[in-house]
Amino acid sequence: MPVLTTDAESETGIPKSLSNELPSGTMEEIEHTCPQPRLTLTAPAPFADETSCQCQAPHEKLTIAQARLGTPVDRPVRVYADGIFDLFHSGHARALMQAKTLFPNSYLLVGVCSDDLTHKFKGFTVMNETERYEALRHCRYVDEVIRDAPWTLTPEFLEKHKIDFVAHDDIPYSSAGSDDVYKHIKEAGMFVPTQRTEGISTSDIITRIVRDYDVYARRNLQRGYTAKELNVSFINEKKYRFQNQVDKMKEKVKNVEEKSKEFVYKVEEKSHDLIQKWEEKSREFIGNFLELFGPDGAWKQMFQERSGRMLQALSPRQSPTSSPTRGRSPSRSPSPTFPWLPNKTSPPSSPKAASASISSMSEGDEDEK
């Protein structure tokens, strides 16, 4: 929304530097030219000294309620968040996301303290200031990065960057001889609290590395770093390399065990299938055997048929019914008479007669032949 200013209004709140630039007795329309939030993420966020806010229109003081309603409509609400941002992690990103989404139309400025200030008031950092600046520039929620940000915010700094609100977690931050470096911001009604992410912080990450120092030293030795680069002694280097060899052997043994388990599982699965098939074949064989050799089996019927035929073939033929019968017993057939046999009623009277009968019997046989 354009702001109309005159000489008479300069005494009612418009900065003299701005009213002095306006011609006396005239009315001029001044529009806000503040940078707008980033609409594309194809490039990193700019630095403040590259795209500073040169807007000449006055920035009226806003309340949090007004900003949440979306006013003013002619410019974004400029929100400032600062920090060290060493080993940039998800906790940092979530805090910046909260600061960015505090109001419907926000322009997020992020101040990053230099190495000198950080080492003086907080301690040594893992990443240097250039690395920390670049990490913030490539965060999607950041619209502008302020390098070498002050440790304590001054009115001059707030006015220079046209800051409407300061976002930070609500825990009092005691540093630089103050119980809370954001105390005067809170009293001015410019402080908007954000929530910390539990379980993740730069100190936690460093604690993990220090706690598992040997693990990470061995890891980097495996990746090709030298003992000198890792500041590791000769004895520790040999110890770490030996432990790496032991771990490799353990990994090989583990792989062999896994393969063995897999092989045994396959064998068990196949043996189960074989046993199942064997049981099915066994049942089939037993069924066929009983069907063939059981009490009512086909083999018994076949055997009975064949045994009947054999008995029929081996049984003697019956005598003809037309043969003469004796008078004494008509039901019985007469006994056959053989001429060569001697008569039972007339035994031979002498040995000579017996021998003569035998010789006659032999001659009779030869005649039959």
UniProtKB/TrEMBL annotation:
Residues 80-208 form the Cytidyltransferase-like domain. Its EC number is 2.7.7.15. It catalyses: phosphocholine + CTP + H(+) = CDP-choline + diphosphate. Gene3D superfamilies: HUPs (3.40.50.620). Residues 315-335, 351-362 have a biased composition (Low complexity). Catalyzes the key rate-limiting step in the CDP-choline pathway for phosphatidylcholine biosynthesis. It is an enzyme of class 2 (transferase). InterPro entries: CCT (IPR041723), Cyt_trans-like (IPR004821), Pcy1-like (IPR045049), Rossmann-like_a/b/a_fold (IPR014729). Pfam families: CTP_transf_like (PF01467). Transmembrane segments: none annotated. GO terms for molecular function: choline-phosphate cytidylyltransferase activity; phosphatidylcholine binding. Residues 1-25, 312-369 are annotated as: Disordered. GO terms for biological process: ovarian follicle development; spermatogenesis. GO terms for cellular component: endoplasmic reticulum. Coiled coil: none annotated. Keywords: Lipid biosynthesis, Lipid metabolism, Nucleotidyltransferase, Phospholipid biosynthesis, Phospholipid metabolism, Transferase. It comes from the Eukaryota. Pathway: Phospholipid metabolism; phosphatidylcholine biosynthesis; phosphatidylcholine from phosphocholine: step 1/2; Lipid metabolism. This is choline-phosphate cytidylyltransferase. NCBIfam families: cyt_tran_rel (TIGR00125). Belongs to the cytidylyltransferase family.
